[in-house]
Task: inverse folding
């Protein structure tokens, strides 16, 4: 009577277990093996999707470090800082130059790091002013209709291909500022920083808006109830409560400015100068990799040196993102009363 | 001996197309506690927010009728709303202290009014904490985060913060609904003490509380003011059938 039924068995009518005759309870129905398999397949499918990002990051990490550290087979760590040039009279002098294709190859990352900072820092400062302002406007001041229109536009900005922005700065922006400010070089750090701002502003604006949005409305009511004006409420209550979120948005924006490639490649002039003059051409770490990786002979010192730049970049952006993530998490905990 | 503080005549309030308050006329008396009771959604909290114009912060609100405080039309186009709110303290259902220290919460109001002298601010902090019966409990920890206080203490600190700008009217929107009985009793004692100097309007869901703390009670239902009278009369001999049904717990 009580016959076991396996998957794949052909079940004739007489074999179908009848709940009512065999077992009087309606709860006694057993789960089907096929359902169980289907459920676990679905589970594993999504588990793989979920961990894929992590696996890729780890693989990239391993590849980058494996290739990058091979640079040390022929290049010393100090060579990435300066090159000791021996003069004919036996004296030596330190040279901070990136010139890996020369017979006397020089691998100093100093001009590249400074170039990166000279574009990323001004871009971040400008973007902080405009982006935080835009975020405050969207979250606290704009009426719902204005917000409905402006918010998608700000987000749309983040979606413009960077090659378009680079081209725009290269052709239109550079000419305009060339006439206006008469810079040292037509393509310079300033032009690149302006181009970078187009990508960084939407990041800061939208994250600032999120940070302000997460401030409980009770606090605004408390402030208005005491008789604070709108500006007092924003400056004395809302912004202080959102400081950590806004700082995180600035850090993420800075990370993006450091990692951005196409705009700086096209607009910064690509001369590896050591300069504090924002109107001079500079070359960033990212632009160096992008410009030289296609031409370098695989397995050469130059090739591995480019990977080493990748390690430096990866480390910087990784830590910036990590710090920002920690701050954002802290903020979330703080605001759940 | 009673003196009218707030006069409301034929007030209507609309959220967009929806009418939330209909034809409300009421006189609220100085140095008395007036309780607003009624089932959820009856408009009592909305009406409370009419008095300090907090509804201005919501889009699409339209108001008709007249509301005067001390004979002055508070919906006058040229009236300074920020100044109005300084004269009217407000305490909310959930304590909404700023994530700052106890001291900074207290002096927030005085400071935005331009008081910078630390001595004066200290005095205000002490005075209002004494008024709010909180001084003994927090005097040694003024620089602790306000959110480290217990729920009842937080709510009393909210009251102290409201008192610090020296208002004449205090609006309370279910100030004790989230508190335990002991903290509630403390708030009620405090209300009793404060009415000597302030006009107090309190919205409450708790009818025993209305009966205990208020001198006058207004019963709202579906956006209308059904009955308004001395509390003792509302709870013992109401003239309206709906009021009677509500206070005896037959509905609501």
Result:
């Amino acid at each position: 009577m009580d016959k076991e039924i396996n998957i794949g068995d052909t079940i004739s009518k007489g074999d179908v277990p009848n709940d009512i005759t065999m077992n009087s309870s309606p709860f006694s129905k057993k789960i089907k093996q096929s359902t169980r398999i289907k459920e676990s397949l679905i589970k594993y499918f999504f588990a793989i999707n979920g961990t894929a990002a992590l696996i890729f990051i780890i693989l990239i990490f391993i590849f980058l470090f494996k290739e990058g550290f091979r640079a040390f087979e022929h290049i010393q760590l100090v060579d990435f800082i300066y090159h000791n040039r021996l003069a004919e009279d036996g004296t030596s002098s330190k040279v901070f130059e990136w010139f890996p294709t020369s017979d006397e190859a020089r691998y100093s990352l100093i001009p590249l790091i400074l170039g990166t900072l000279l574009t990323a820092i001004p871009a971040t400062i400008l973007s902080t002013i405009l982006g935080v302002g835009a975020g405050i406007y969207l979250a606290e001041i704009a009426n719902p209709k204005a917000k409905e229109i402006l918010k998608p536009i700000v987000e749309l900005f983040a979606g413009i291909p960077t090659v378009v922005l680079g081209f725009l700065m290269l052709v239109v922006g550079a000419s305009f500022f060339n006439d206006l400010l008469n810079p040292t070089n037509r393509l310079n750090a300033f032009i690149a920083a302006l181009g970078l701002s187009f990508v960084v502003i939407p990041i800061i604006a939208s994250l600032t808006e999120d940070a302000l949005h997460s401030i409980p409305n009770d606090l605004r009511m408390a402030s208005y109830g005491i008789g604070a004006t709108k500006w007092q409420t924003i400056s004395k209550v809302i912004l202080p409560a959102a400081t950590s979120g806004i700082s995180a948005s600035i850090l993420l924006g800075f990370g993006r400015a450091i990692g951005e490639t196409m705009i700086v490649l096209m607009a910064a002039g690509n001369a590896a100068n050591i300069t504090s003059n924002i109107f001079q051409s500079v070359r960033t770490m990212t632009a160096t990799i992008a410009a030289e990786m296609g031409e370098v002979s695989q397995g050469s010192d130059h090739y591995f040196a480019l990977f080493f730049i990748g390690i430096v970049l990866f480390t910087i952006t990784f830590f910036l993102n990590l710090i920002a993530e920690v701050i954002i998490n802290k903020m979330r905990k703080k605001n759940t009363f | 001996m009673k003196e009218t503080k707030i006069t409301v005549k034929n007030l209507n309030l609309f959220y967009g197309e929806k009418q939330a308050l209909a034809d409300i006329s009421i006189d609220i008396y100085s140095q008395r506690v007036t309780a607003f009771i009624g089932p959820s959604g009856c408009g009592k909290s909305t009406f409370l927010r009419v008095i300090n114009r907090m509804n201005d912060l919501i889009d699409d609100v339209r108001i008709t009728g007249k509301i005067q405080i001390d004979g002055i039309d508070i919906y006058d186009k040229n009236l300074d709303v920020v100044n109005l709110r300084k004269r009217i303290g407000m305490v909310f259902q959930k304590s909404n202290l700023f994530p700052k220290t106890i001291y900074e919460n207290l002096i927030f109001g005085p400071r935005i009014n331009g008081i910078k002298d630390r001595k004066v601010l200290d005095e205000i902090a002490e005075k209002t904490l004494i008024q709010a019966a909180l001084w003994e409990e927090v005097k040694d920890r003024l620089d602790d985060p306000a959110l480290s206080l217990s729920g009842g203490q937080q709510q009393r600190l909210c009251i102290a913060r409201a008192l610090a700008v020296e208002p004449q009217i205090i609006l309370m929107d279910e100030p004790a609904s989230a508190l335990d009985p002991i903290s509630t009793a403390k708030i009620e004692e405090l209300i009793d003490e404060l009415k000597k100097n302030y006009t107090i309007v309190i919205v409450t869901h708790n009818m025993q509380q209305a009966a205990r703390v208020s001198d006058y009670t207004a019963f709202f239902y579906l956006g209308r003011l059904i009955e308004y009278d001395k509390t003792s009369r509302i709870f013992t001999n109401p003239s309206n059938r709906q009021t009677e049904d509500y206070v005896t717990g037959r509905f609501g």
